[in-house]
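User: I want to check something. If I give you two sequences, will you return the structure for each one separately, not as a complex?

Assistant: Yes, each is folded on its own. Here is the first sequence with its structure:
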Amino acid sequence: MARTKLINGVPIPCTPEEEAERDAEELAWANRHIPTDDEIDQEMLNRALAEPGSIVRALAEVMFQEINKLRVRGGQTAYTKQQFIDALKTAMRA
């Protein structure tokens, strides 16, 4: 079945060149390399996410502060930074 494209809401058959371009895109997508966990440098990712200015770092800092406020309000001791990091690492692999 020939592919079509919409031009002003009207389906128009694709040209042979457009068909070939789309076939190449689909082949590239099908043959893409998805890295395994072993191939991903987890330490590099963690460093990038913890860089000053990182949105992930900012979210973690705010979450750390808010959790400690709730813990203290509930009569518990506040987490140390290391306890919080350890909890995050445990949750990452759960």
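And separately, the second sequence with its own structure:
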Amino acid sequence: MAYIITADDDTLHAVTHGLMDRSDLSYLRARMQNALRSSGGVVSRFVARAKETLENINLSAMREKVETVMDRFTSRWDHDRIQEMHSIAQMRNAKPKMRKALMANPRYRALWQAGRAEGFGDLYQDDDVGAIGPTHVTFREIMNGSYISKVADEDHFVTYLGVYDEGLGEEVYNKTEKDYIRNTCDRVNEILDEGRYDPHSPICNTL
């Protein structure tokens, strides 16, 4: 079975051949500066381009991309099941069942619908276009039977009609799966509060 990883050429090269460290980069930049000083001001197009490339290397960003590709590769054998997730790496590499559940999170879904978040890119197919929160079928399936705490006299269990599988009379998610999803969505919201990473971007985009 073939397993295909998509990434830019520099990231794939770093994954297969290793990522240089800061001392290597400093050495190359120093050698470039020496070459420029000894050139007497006559700089070839090749040298100028090499200088620009060295100056623009961002090791931190490259390391993040490499780690993201490796996370995707090592998670290829994970089962497609509902599970609780705590790390961004787990979320970015979620399988179809978990992707569908995570995309029901109203806060993230609003960002995605506004074009401010990636929402798993082409890996997620929206079957309920435009819906969000209580109008979204998957959200109702996840939240059905959940305990809602507001103020002292208004705490209650929420029940949504029409969340049972036709013909079977069974809910799509059992209680344990709902707890896993809700806990993971709480973690997603914490990541969104930090305002940096897109937790559902397979290619390591920021918000």
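Because they were folded independently, the notes below concern the second chain alone. The chain has nine helices and two strands. Residues 81-194 form one domain.
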